[in-house]
C-alpha cells in the first residue's frame, strides 16, 4: 500500500523542473554532474522524466515541442493546497498565469505563472507526487532565490499570495529579504539593481548542493556547460553560478557544515 505524500506548507518550494530541446542530452549532463538516474512520467504534458538520487525524486526534466522556442530555465515550484485558488490570487495581485491550472495525471495539479516583475515560477498542488523527496545531500536542490531589480514591491506580491513573513537584511548596499513560513526560512528575494542580467530579467535561481564546488564547476565545463560566476565564498558556503549546455542557469553550493539549507 502506497502512503499518501506528506503535505507541504503552502508557499514552500517543493519541486524544480526544466523544459529543454534535447531531453536525452540533458539527462546525460545532469546524470553525469549529479549522479541522477531517471524515471519517465508523468507524460500528460509531453515527454518528461524525473531525476532520482538513491531512489528519491529530486527534479523534473521535460521536452519542448519542436515548434516552441522558450527560454531554457529551471523553474521553482511553490506548494499550494488549491492550485485554482492560488492562480486566481496571482492574477488579482498583478501576476500572470501563463499555463493552467491543469492536471498532471494523478501526480498533482499545476500552473506556470509570473510575478509582476516577470519572474516565472510554478505552483504545485501535490496528489500522488508531493515534490522533491530528499534534500541536503549532494545533487539535491537546497535553496531557491528570486533574483530581481529591487525587492520591496515584489515582496508584497509574494506576501499576499503565499502568506510569507519577510526578514530584510538591514544594509544600505544589500537588498535581500528572506521569506519565512512558520518561522522557517524557505526562500529569499535578492535585489541586484543594474547587475540584473539584461538577457534574463528577474528570475528564480535554484541552488544545488555539491560535495566540492570547484570540482563541480570544472565538471560543468567538461560536460559542455559554462561557468558564469567562478567559485567564491558566500555567507553560507562556497558557490558558483553555471549554465548547462542549453543555457539553463543554476548555482552549485557546498553549504557551510554540509547540509545547511540557509540562504547563501
UniProtKB/TrEMBL annotation:
Protein name, per record: VOC family protein
Source organism, top-level taxon: Bacteria
Source species of the chain: Streptomyces pakalii
InterPro entries the UniProt entry points to: Anthracycline_SecMetBiosynth, Glyas_Bleomycin-R_OHBP_Dase, Glyoxalase_6, VOC_core
Domain VOC: 12-126, 140-255
